[in-house]
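FORM 7B: Structural annotation worksheet

SECTION A. Query
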Amino acid sequence: MNCVIIGAGNYSYVLLNYMNEQKEKVNIIGLLDDDVSLHGTMILGKPVLGNIHLLEGLYSSHNIEAVYCPIGNIKTRVSMLKYARSLGYILPNFIHESSVVGPNVSLGIGIYIMPGTIVMPSATISNYCMLSMGISVGHDTSFDEGVFVANGCNIGGNIIIMKETFVGMGATIISGVKSIGQNCIIGAGSVVISDIQSNVTVVGNPARVIKEH
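SECTION B. Predicted structure
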């Protein structure tokens, strides 16, 4: 199956590296990015073909069937993947071979799980989520659409993290917390010991609200 990656930045470079080391190879034809200065350049031997709107004709011109989009900005990633899906493209998941996804875990589409992450049984990872390296996700925990968890986070069991929330590097959300609202930012290194409302930034140990948005 021929694939293309949306975005030609750092996360795409990282994803391409991991894809190249996997036993099961992914046939990446090229990348798309709206930065015209990147057009015609190569990333790990793959060409930047042009802007995002080339997707509308790539099935015909390059026989592209599937799209990856490992962009760090949550709203951009979700928007691009929904756009690709509306055009009829397949949105495969990428799970690094060193990560462990337990039994009875429910996985959506367009999910990226990087090395050394453990997802315990009966968790739910919804569409367009991205989990970076070295994360621990407890049993029965649920990530809604687009959640992005950065390196080294520890997330307890039976927690709901609502859509498009970002959990910063090294943060901990302890078991006993029931829900983290949507569109939140959990600051790097924060320790969350109680529920968090939607549309806020929290930092510290214990985590406290410093901004509403």
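SECTION C. Observations
The two ends are 41 Å apart (CA to CA). Helices lie at 10-21, 55-62, 74-86.

SECTION D. Sign-off
Analyst initials: ____
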